[in-house]
Structures are given as C-alpha cells and as structure tokens.
Backbone:
C-alpha cells in the first residue's frame, strides 16, 4: 500500500513544483474578455470573437492556456501563417482585410494568454 | 444554415453517437487533407488576402480602411487600380481580388441616424452587429441571410437574401444610398433623386464606386417562433409551396443520400422566449461526412444508414427575437453554387440536382438549401421582375467543387436560373444580358461613372464583357 502511494505522492509533489496552467475562463468570462488596446479590441470583436470566445466552436478558447499552449509551442511564425492563410475551420485572416502581421501577432498573444510575450 | 439542420439531431441518440465518439473513426477514413495555402507574403512583400472559403486570393499593393467619405474619395481617385471594396470576403466569385488597392469599410460602420423608422447605416457595419443595434431601437431588418458575418455593403452588393415568400432580399429594403465614385464624386440617390443610379447601384458588385451608407426600411423587432423538423424528401417537396405561403420565413434542406429533408420555419409570436439549445452544426455535418466516408461506395447502404441515424431526431422549437434566430454561425467552410430560378421551375430543378448528385457525386455530403425570395426592381437583382426560388449546392472546402460547373450549372441554366453574384458560376456578358432586361442600362451607368474602369478587376471585366 505504501509502495503504491509513493508514485502518487511524487506526482503530486512534481505537479505542485511545476508551472501551473491557469484554469480556462468560464463561458461568461470568455465572452467578456477583450484586449486592453481599443483598436485591437475592435479587430478582435469583428474577426476573432465569434469563434474564439464561444466554447464548442472548435477554435481554441481565448485565454484557455491548456488549449493554446501546445499550439504556441510550435512558434509564432506557424500561428501567424495559419492566421493569414486560414487553417482548418479558420478562414484566412479571420476575414480582417486590413489587419497587419503585427495585429495578428498581438491578437494571437492575447488569445493565447501570452500578452507578456509582447516586446 | 447548418445549425438549422444541426438542431435536429440534438435529440437524436444515434446521431449523437456518430457525431461524438464514432465520428473520429468515420471521418478518418476518407477525408482529403487541408488544401495547400498560398504563401502569406508574395515576392513583393505584399500580404495575402484570401476569401472565406479559400478559393480566391490576391496580394494587394495597398490595403486601405478610410475613416470617412473624404478619405475614401481620395483613395478612389488616386489609389492604384484595380480598386476593389471588400467586406468579410464571403463571396466565392473573384469580386474582391486585386493586385491594386483593397478598400475595407471596417472603419465606417454603425447606425448614424434615423428618418422615422428607417435607419441610416454605414455599409462597413457587419450584419451580426446591425441586429442588436437596431434592436436597441425596437427595430429589426425584415429578413436576414443565414450567415451574419458579411458587411452590409457586401451583402447588398451581391443581392444577399434570406427566405420568405413575401420578403425581399436585403437590397429591397434600401430606400436611399450614398455612392462615392471613382472620380471622388459623392452622389446621393433614391427612387426620385438620381433614380437611374439608385436602381443600378442597389446591386452593383462594387463596380460603380463604393456605397458608404444606405437608408434601410426596418420592421418592428418581433419575437419569432422557430421550428425545425425532419421528414421524407418527397413529402417536403409536395408541401413546400403551401409552407412558403403559410410561414413568414420558410426554407428547407434536401439531405442527399438520405431521402430526407429538414424544414425550417419562423413565424411571429407573442409566446415567451424559449432559448435555442447549443449549436449542433459541426456534429451534424460530421455525421453526414462520416456516412460519406464510411459508406460512400454503396449509396443504398448509405441511404439506409442515414435514414436510420437521422430519423431519431426530435424537432427543435425556439422563441426569440428574429435577429438572434435567422442567422447563425457557420464554422464549417465550404464552396457553393446557388442559382435563383423562376418559382415554377425551382422544385423540378431541385429534384434533378439531387438525383444527379446521388448518381454522379458520392463525395457530396452537404445538404442542399432551398429558399424563396420576393421580387424587386433593382436592375441587377436576381429577383428583378418577380419572386424566385433559390437552390444552393455546397461542397466541403477540402473537397473538389469543380463538378458544380459541368454537372449542376447546366441544370440551373436549363431552368432559366440567374446566378447568385457572390457564388460560383461561369456566366458572363451575353449570357447575363439575356437574363437581365436592364443589363445594358447598368453597363451604361457603369461606363458613365467609371469610364477608365478603375473599379474593374479581370473578373469583373470578363463578367461585364468590358475590354481588358
């Protein structure tokens, strides 16, 4: 019995020491989240919000680190290409005709909960 | 559209099983990979523009988002041609692509005034934002298309429509408009003032300049009762005319390879609100795609399985304000051909389309949308001269859609159909002149407003038969 508990305790210890993934937002929180910058918020509302702020659309939910972290590890250039070219269900550029690559980077960071990555 | 179908399976245990656990297996057996994407940036360093479905793309030299008519007029006068206005990029035809200047009106949106119950709306407004903005004043558009991501300008310019025998396409509610021409002139037009420009511009593919605002007729923001139910395709065909006469909004979807149809009606009601359940679009389409992937080789088996799977579906009822019910999300991308037919030909054409798909194209799984729209008098309106019945065939964005041209378009043309301006078709010049009695009048207005063809990209030159 004691032997069986050792790996469990070790796992709990490791989990406690490792970086914590913040919990995903509730559906209500996801709907309400907006970038702090007013222009970016406007772009987000027009082009991202309908899919990324609604659970179950298939798009990774805004500020859901568990959904975004795997994607983010592939690198911003890959995510930027996907945003510009379209990928799976996502239409190219989220149908934002005037967004710049910098806009997309900022929007990706916001949705991925990585605003702290902005330089 | 899809969620109208998808809602049906909310109570369908069998469908839910396929859409959930089984789908992962089913869809893994026959899907095509993600289509190759054009480069994000071209050799000149210009950023990619691509339409919603992914079949159109361009690398515009300039992208502009003017904040007012002065900025827009300057851009139209001095910008590198071709100058093309773009909304949400929901057109499947090459209306927007340009190597010159792409103009978005995203910075020119919102309701800017009222004349009685008519709202003055800037055309950069997205339809999804217009509904709640009108509702704040207790008003609503009489009808809406089943996607609400488009800009108002884009929707009007391509004769975008909903469904309802007594309801016109969106441009039917335009009472006045303001056009900024390629020479930078600002023209106000309505049925009395500049009437020729008004009738030409209401549906004009962004070819006369850029329409910056319209005065829209609105109706009271009534609560609607939405009813979605399934029945055999033959019964839906037999009862469709009566249902168009009976309901405020009615449409149905033929579900190929199942022998079934999904009916969707909306009627005004004073019943208390009844929330619409979670959207089931993706699950429903996954189920149909799974059936295609697993049983596409054996149509009789696929039909039997489809009927067994879907016939357990329970009807859906929801009650809410119209702008919340008539349009939906469409998270699954597709390519589409839609023609508008004389109403007496609509269902005959539909039967032929379904039979042809089931005989020739087992790869198709999307339902076929069948709507009816009241007539109007805009010169390039597909509904000019009287009511039309529309039939729309969809292909999943990863699948081949080229069959639409040799296989489906000839059926629509044989039944005197007019193509949706934003959806796939091959018609141009003389073919369109034969379908539109005011075609030459439109071309004359276009020549007058844009003699240098600054608004014409290669696609529009071909469409209008204007020399390259």
Residues:
């Amino acid at each position: 019995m004691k032997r069986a508990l050792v790996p469990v305790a070790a796992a709990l210890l490791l989990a406690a020491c490792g970086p914590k993934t913040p919990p995903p937002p509730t559906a209500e929180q996801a709907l309400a989240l907006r970038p702090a910058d007013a222009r970016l918020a406007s772009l987000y509302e027009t082009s991202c919000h309908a899919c990324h702020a609604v659970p179950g659309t298939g798009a990774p939910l805004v500020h859901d680190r568990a959904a975004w972290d795997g994607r983010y590890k592939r690198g911003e250039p890959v995510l930027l290409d996907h945003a510009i070219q379209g990928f799976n269900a996502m239409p190219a550029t989220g149908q934002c005709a005037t967004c710049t690559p910098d806009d997309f980077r900022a929007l990706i960071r916001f949705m991925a909960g990585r605003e702290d990555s902005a330089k | 559209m899809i969620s109208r179908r998808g809602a049906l399976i909310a109570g369908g245990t069998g469908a839910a099983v396929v859409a959930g656990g089984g789908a992962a297996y089913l869809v893994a057996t026959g899907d095509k990979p993600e289509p190759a994407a054009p480069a994000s940036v071209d050799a000149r360093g210009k950023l990619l523009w691509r339409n919603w479905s992914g079949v159109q793309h361009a690398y515009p030299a300039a992208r502009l988002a003017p904040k007012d008519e002065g900025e827009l007029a300057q851009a139209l006068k001095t910008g590198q041609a071709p100058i093309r206005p773009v909304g949400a990029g929901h057109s499947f035809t090459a209306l927007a692509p340009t190597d010159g200047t792409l103009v978005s009106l995203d910075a020119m949106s919102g309701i800017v005034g009222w004349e009685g119950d008519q709202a003055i709306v800037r055309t950069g407004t997205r339809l999804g934002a217009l509904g709640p903005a009108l509702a704040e004043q207790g008003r609503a558009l009489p009808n809406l298309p089943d996607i609400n991501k488009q800009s108002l300008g884009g929707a009007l310019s391509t004769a975008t429509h909903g469904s309802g025998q007594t309801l016109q396409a969106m441009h039917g509610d335009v009472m006045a408009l303001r056009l900024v021409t390629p020479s930078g002139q600002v023209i106000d037009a309505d049925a009395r003032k500049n009437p020729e420009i008004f009738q030409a511009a209401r549906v004009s593919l962004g070819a006369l300049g850029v329409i910056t605002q319209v005065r829209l007729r609105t109706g009271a923001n009534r609560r609607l009762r939405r009813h979605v139910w399934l029945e055999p395709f033959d019964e839906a065909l037999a009862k469709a005319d009566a249902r168009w006469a009976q309901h405020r909004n009615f449409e149905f979807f033929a579900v190929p390879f199942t022998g079934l149809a999904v009916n969707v009606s909306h009627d005004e009601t004073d019943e208390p609100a009844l929330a619409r359940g979670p959207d089931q679009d993706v699950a429903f389409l996954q189920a149909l795609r799974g059936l295609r992937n697993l049983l596409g080789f054996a149509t009789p088996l696929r039909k039997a399985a489809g009927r067994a799977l879907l016939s357990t579906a329970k009807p859906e009822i929801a009650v809410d304000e119209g702008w919340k019910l008539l349009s939906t999300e469409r998270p699954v991308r597709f390519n589409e051909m839609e023609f508008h037919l004389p109403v007496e030909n609509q269902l005959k054409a539909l039967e032929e389309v379904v039979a042809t798909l089931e005989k020739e194209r087992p790869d198709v799984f999307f339902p076929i949308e069948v709507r009816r729209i009241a007539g109007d008098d805009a010169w390039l309106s597909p509904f000019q001269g009287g009511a039309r019945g529309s039939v729309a065939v969809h292909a999943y964005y990863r699948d081949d859609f080229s069959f639409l041209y040799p296989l489906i378009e000839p059926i629509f043309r044989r039944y005197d159909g007019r193509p949706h301006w934003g959806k796939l078709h091959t018609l141009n010049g003389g073919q369109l002149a034969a379908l539109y009695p005011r075609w030459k009048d439109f071309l004359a207005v276009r020549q007058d407003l844009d003699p240098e063809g600054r608004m014409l990209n290669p696609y529009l030159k071909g469409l209008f038969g204007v020399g390259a």
